[in-house]
Design a protein that fits this description.
InterPro entries: Arg-tRNA-ligase, Arg-tRNA-synth_N, Arg-tRNA-synth_N_sf, ArgRS_core, DALR_anticod-bd, Rossmann-like_a/b/a_fold, tRNAsynth_Ia_anticodon-bd. Helices cover 54% and strands 10% of the residues. The chain has helices at 3-14, 21-27, 44-50, 54-64, 86-100, 130-148, 164-176, 179-184, 186-203, 206-219, 223-246, 264-273, 307-322, 336-348, 382-400, 407-424, 436-439, 447-464, 484-491, 493-502, 507-526, 536-556, and strands at residues 39-42, 70-76, 79-84, 114-118, 152-156, 277-280, 283-286, 296-299, 326-330, 357-360, 365-367, 370-371, 432-433.
């Protein structure tokens, strides 16, 4: 039952259809202060329509609206404040959660539509750094959130597995490489070769031509070049998959840049047929003057296709193969212009579905206030961070709960969860300062704090021997007065999911579960839940409801919830 929607329908009847119920629902607010009710309807927007003062409209409406769901209705200035019937609402929420369990809070507006999500996309033969963390965890959380809203997510890891750098890498390997060393530690060795190539090229410029020559061979299908490239790719993917496994992230496709090599001529052909290609400085471009954008470069003067050509081919391929309802690109904000051009070119070419493509930008991961850079050696390796976080979590557990059964398993859940939550609790457009100490705190707005609250609530249920299966169907012996703040938060879960989906913003869920954890911990400090009383079954049902919602909220962020900590 959506109580906001319920109030909107009652108001719609009282207003005799003067305002659409959908518009009314959008105007309904949740008062910041609970003393002002559970829902509030401001009457300002009706003043012009009814040619009356908003406070008079509020007064008139208060006399017309009635529902068993409302305990009372108060008028404060131009606001109509509605207090919900605590017993009726609380029991409805609690019973919904007990019945629906992890499905609670779901929506179906996605109607099974496919959503492709271009995310993570590390470069082959380069280390997986903290810089890649953001695209990976934001993309993964968005996939889980859109699924909760009725869509079918398709996660695509658009690997950086093509380009001149592979010619340079082949050249470096041919000159200085050692097969055994590469097999033993692929990323580290390949990166060292790549760095050595650049250092040597400074005094020996002919190396650059050699590198380009090898890439030309690779493009022309030379067997040796191709088998070395394939080997570098396979070894890199083995390394990456270990990191993805640590974070419980899976993909539906690893089709990277190389996958689109044979699909770009068609793009050029389409643009030629639509007479969109024009020559500029001997290169082929699509003019975007009307769109107030710089021209989009499609083909270099030497005939080579570019990054944009490849992304156009990828967009067309994804539409034809997945028939997406939405196509999302979780890529840093520095690529914003590129995606504006991409969508503009597709629109010009008559692809109406281009409007379903959305660039989801995000800020940078900073270290000491500066951007992390592979070239300058200022990179922080993600796997090292995850492992260090797990080690620190293990140390905390050893200190606080030495008798815990599965210390290693819980340390992994807490350590990895801390890193993910630290990213997702921030609005994605904010830059994030990397800090392991900050991530692993057990208090404040952190992953471990939410996980600990879940474990604590689970422990209460274990001590009481309470099971959802044996919970009463309804009628609890309590007024729900003390529990109302927690109930109000549980009621908000569905709205937080909807906001997170519509704004592609996982921080909505992260903030929500922190708020729920705080409200619950305050309640638990004030109310003796385990004390034998006629209210005990209601209180335990509430504790169970909190565990369900915290666990599901963490899951939507790609984080596990340990039952003990």
């Amino acid at each position: 039952m959506n109580f906001k929607k319920g109030l909107a329908e009652v108001l719609y009847q009282a207003l005799e259809g003067e305002l659409a119920s959908q518009n009314i629902e959008q105007l309904i607010e949740k008062p910041k202060n609970q003393d002002h009710g559970d829902l509030a309807f401001p009457c300002f927007s009706l003043a012009k329509l009814k040619r009356k003062a908003p406070n008079l409209i509020a007064q008139e409406l208060s006399e017309k609206i009635q529902s068993p769901t409302f305990e009372k209705v108060e008028v404060v200035g131009a606001y109509l404040n509605v207090f919900l019937n605590k017993k009726l609402v609380a029991e409805h929420i609690i019973n919904s959660i007990i019945t629906e369990k992890g499905k609670y809070g779901a929506h179906d507006f996605g109607q099974g539509g496919n959503v492709t999500i271009d995310m993570s996309s590390p470069n082959i033969a380069k280390p997986f750094s903290m810089g890649h963390l953001r695209s990976t965890v934001i993309g993964n959380a968005i996939a889980l959130i859109v699924e909760k809203c009725g869509y079918k997510p398709i996660k695509i890891n658009h690997l950086g597995d093509w380009g001149t750098q592979f010619g340079k890498l082949i050249s470096a390997y041919k000159r200085w490489g050692d097969e055994e060393k590469v097999k033993a530690n692929p990323i580290k060795e390949l990166l060292a070769l790549y760095i050595k190539f650049h250092a040597e090229a400074e005094t020996n410029p002919a190396l650059e031509d050699e590198g380009r020559g090898w890439f030309k061979k690779l493009e022309d299908g030379d067997q040796e070049a191709h088998s070395l490239w394939q080997w570098f790719r396979d070894e890199s993917l083995k390394e990456f998959s270990r990191i993805y496994q640590l974070m419980n992230v899976e993909f539906d496709s690893y089709a990277g840049e190389a996958f689109y090599n044979d699909k770009m001529d068609r793009v050029v052909q389409i643009l030629e047929e639509k007479q969109l290609l024009v020559e500029s400085d001997q290169a082929q471009v699509v003019e975007l003057t009307e769109e107030e954008l710089p021209p989009c470069l499609i083909k270099k003067s030497d005939g080579a296709t570019l990054y944009a050509t490849r992304d156009l081919a990828a967009a067309i391929y994804r539409k034809e193969n997945y028939d997406f309802a939405q196509s999302l690109y979780v890529v840093g904000h520095e690529q914003s212009l590129h995606f504006k051009q991409l969508i503009a070119v597709l629109n010009k070419a008559g692809f109406e579905w281009a409007d379903k493509m959305v660039h989801i930008p995000f800020g940078m991961m900073l270290k000491d206030g500066k951007k992390m850079s592979t070239r300058k050696g200022k990179v922080v390796l993600l796997e090292e961070v995850l492992n260090e976080s797990i080690t620190m979590a293990r140390y905390n557990i050893e200190e606080k709960n030495p008798n815990l059964a599965d210390k290693d398993g819980v340390a992994k859940q807490v350590g990895v969860g801390a890193v993910i939550f630290h990213d997702l609790k921030n609005n994605r457009m904010n830059d994030i300062e990397f800090s392991l100490e900050e991530m692993l705190r057990f208090e404040g707005e952190t992953g471990p704090y939410v996980q600990y609250t879940f474990a604590r609530a689970s422990s209460i249920l274990r001590k009481a021997g309470w099971k959802a299966e044996s919970a009463p169907a309804s009628v609890y012996q309590t007024t729900w007065e003390n529990e109302w703040k927690v109930i109000s938060m549980l009621m908000e879960f569905s709205s937080a999911i909807k906001r997170a989906c519509e704004n592609y913003d996982p921080s909505q869920i992260a903030k929500y579960i922190v708020d729920l954890a705080q409200v619950f911990n305050k309640y638990y400090a004030e109310v003796k839940v385990l004390e034998q009383s006629e209210e005990q079954s209601a209180r335990l049902a509430l504790v169970y409801s909190v565990t369900v919602v915290l666990k599901e909220g963490l899951r939507l962020l790609g984080i596990e919830a340990p039952e003990e900590m």
